[in-house]
Structure formats: C-alpha cells, structure tokens
Write a structure and sequence with these properties.
Blueprint lengths: L1 H20 L23 E13 L3 E14 L2 E16 L1 E13 L6 E13 L2 E13 L3
Length: 143
Amino acid sequence: MRKALLMFALLAALAVPAVATAGKTPVPGVICGTACDGGGGGWSGCTQQTADDHNGIRWLSYYHHYLIVNYCKVNGLITSASIVAHGCDFEGAAACTTGPAWLESGGVGTGWATFTGRAYYIGALGGVAFAGTSSVTVNIPLG
C-alpha cells in the first residue's frame, strides 16, 4: 500500500508542471520590442543618418562639426552600422579638430543605435575669443 501511495504522489508531482504550462504560449528567448512584433515587421533597407553642430559667422569665424553613419536593417534589426565620416570644417578666424567618435549603445543585432562624436574648436569674433567642445549624436531609431 505504501508503494502505491508513493507512486501516486510521484505521478501527481510530475503532472503539476504539465498542467501549469498547458495552453500557455512559450516565452521567447529574445527580447524583441516593437522592432519585430513577433514576425519581423520592421523596416528593411540601407540608409544614412547625419548629425551636425555649427557656430559663428560664415567666412568670418565659423566651424561646422558633423558625424555621418551608414546602416542597414532587415525586419527592423540592424545588420551593419558604421561611421563613414567624422569631421570639422572651419572658416576665417576659427579652427577645429575632431576628437573621438564611438558607438554608445545598441548596434548590430539590435533595433537601435546611438553614435556620438566630439570636436574641439576655437575662434574669435570682433576681438572676442570663443572656444569649446562640440558634441553630435546620431540616433538610429527602432523600427
């Protein structure tokens, strides 16, 4: 009798997980977000995004800092992304130089990315000097 009760208890314990999961959708192993809505409904293709910053008066004392990123997506997921240009042009009584540019978050295999670039500038207008750091950010959105 004891063996029969022990066998019944073992069978009941094994049946509880099967009953608890019956009729439930399994949880996917990948966090997809809105970019792929379970079936991969995001955008597919390749494009380019640009961010820039500028200050001063053209031809007198002026800088223009820019960051250009090319990327491709398939069903909303980034398959390639790269910085293709990071520069700083200047005119007149100004000068600038680029600093670092990098991927901050996201990137290949995700649905978004954030790239940031820095530049350093100095110039003068009407005898008054100005200098600082320029920061530009390219955001590749979900979708």
